[in-house]
Amino acid sequence: MTKIRNNNLDRLLNEISKRPLVIFAGAGINGKTIPQWNELLLSLMEHALSEIAYRERLNKRDKSNLHKTINELYDNGEIDSYAAATLIKRLLGKNYISHLRNKLYEKFYKNEFLQYFKNPKGNGHEDKYKFLIQTAKLCSSPNVHAVVSYNYDNLLEIAIDTIAKRKTAIISPSKGSVSLDKDTLPVYHVHGMVPMPGSKIRASEPNIVLSRDEYFQNMLKPHSWQTTTQLHFLINYPCLFVGTSLKDWNMLRLLSIGENSIASASRYILRRYYFRDKKHKVTDKNNEILNKIRSTLYDDVGVYTISIYDNNELESTIMKITEEMA
Taking the model in full, what pTM does it have? Predict the structure, then answer.
């Protein structure tokens, strides 16, 4: 039976009042700060197709048709995200990480980002950075044991360091073992790290998980630190997923393993309430059933859904969780 929304939040609050929390963060926490996953892939694909058009000397019309056809195949699901990433890697060659970095940060303005912390209200950027800042405040609590990030960027770490002055330690395939003191928050970049241009942080280029071959290699290493670390957290700590829809098959596999083990803690996800408006001729009752169906899919891998109706409720919910750990 689908678990009830308010009970799930109460259950989480009760659990984290007794033990540390682990945050699992996806691309959604960045809001409009940098491109979301689909936007990033489509932008990279457009660049890759332009490379093909140049090499094949396509005219303007053929180039346009090529872009249109590939986008339609992606939208229809005939090319999934891993297939798209694989094509991008093959078409762009050895420089694809460089292209990934450029597309990831091309609309990111670091000075504007840092200025926001000095004057968060009245500067016109509230919506752009709000979710990231809320997540950073949550992570800044001493009762957050660790963060598992599926993002290539380190914007969350910058936000935590800036607003909370809590020291963070980035752990990625290129970093190796890191010595941590008890006040340092470890942030595990399990899919690798692509820092912004000019950063002193080294990219984990050979270990980026983006294309099919990289994804398969990651799954073939059951004793890698990425797998063992996530399983350890999923089994032994209450975990909260934010900014992710949990569609990654490897993550679902780990959740299933955790669900079938003797887990001592629960897992939760903050998800926007699925809502179809009146123009789709969907009633409130239909919306309620749709959300129960979606929650049932999360229930199947042992994840409790905490549904959020709008940005105001998202903010108040994160504040409640943060205050509970104060």
Answer: 0.84
